[in-house]
Amino acid sequence: MGIVVNLDVVMAQRKISSRELARAIGITEANLSLLKTGKVKGVRFETLAAICQFLNCQPGDILAFSEA
Questions:
Q1: Where are the alpha helices (DSSP H) in the chain?
Q2: Which H/E stretch holds residue 4?
Q3: Rounded CA Rg of the chain
C-alpha cells in the first residue's frame, strides 16, 4: 500500500520541464526529482498548492493511492 506520485505524467501532458516547474514554484530541481520519484516522506501543502496552480491541476491528478 502506498501513495503513487504521477507528477511526471502530468508534467509530460503539459509539456513542462523539471527546470521550468522547479523555478516557478521555488524549489530545487533535486528536490523536485525526489518528489517525482516518490522518495520523500511528505510534501508541504504550500508546495503542493504551487504545483497544482502552475500545472492547472488538482492534487488527485498528482497523487494516487495504490493497494499494490
A1: 7-13, 18-25, 29-36, 45-55, 59-62
A2: strand 2-5
A3: 11
Nearest to 67 by CA among 9, 4, 7: 4
- Predicted TM-score (pTM) of the model is 0.91
Say how far apart CA 18 and CA 33 lie, in whole Å.
Answer: 8
How far is 45 from 14, CA to CA, in rounded Å?
Answer: 22
Cell, residue 34: 525526489
Rounded Cα gap, residues 42 and 10, in angstroms: 19
- Measured CA to CA in angstroms, residue 33 lies from 19, 22, 65, 67, 68 at distances of 10, 9, 20, 24, 23
pLDDT at 68: 75
Q: CB of 18 within 8 A of CB of 48?
A: no
User: Which residue type does 62 have?
Assistant: I
